Amino acid sequence: MTITLSNKQASVILAALEAFQRARMGQFSMALEQIFPKKCLAKGFEEMQTLEMDLKKFFFGDELSKNSYWGIPNKEKVGEDAQIAYEIFGTMRQFMALEKSGGIYENYTNYNSPLKLSDEPLPEIDGHKELTYKIHEFPDQVAAKKLFAEKKFDKLWDMVDSMKLPYGYCSAKEIMLVEGDLPETQKLVLRVEEPHND
Q: Is 177:169 a contact under the CB 8 Å cutoff?
């Protein structure tokens, strides 16, 4: 199945997925805020908490007290379909955040990868994987390829340090030789996984 969505359409689906999974977790206030944001705000915190407790009692009896909820990994309580909703939500949310930031990670939950919880594969979005890393060519290809061929990797990493990349940190860095049709068209590059600004 392939679906093409505008950002506005994707935002509507994200809100629906979040409402569904939060309701299954017993987070009824947060679920309703996705559906009726203005009305929930107008009702106020205390009234929303009272409504949440009534809904908890109705659906879960005495299993959940105030400020207690089922965790999304608890398949027995939330159901696998809520976990699937979480996985779709997390994948789409991360993609939209990375698309907006140009592939630079920031320290917000929107940039987190979803946990793998259900038996279904994580959904795939065209262009998502490419947003999770950056490729940088070594400026001096001749010198870099010579060090690579001689396996002088310490000196190659010194060269990486001198490149002054605009990231505070990343989850991984890898030096790679990108194949070309001819030896002279091969390029030595640095692949930076999940680059962060700070």
A: no
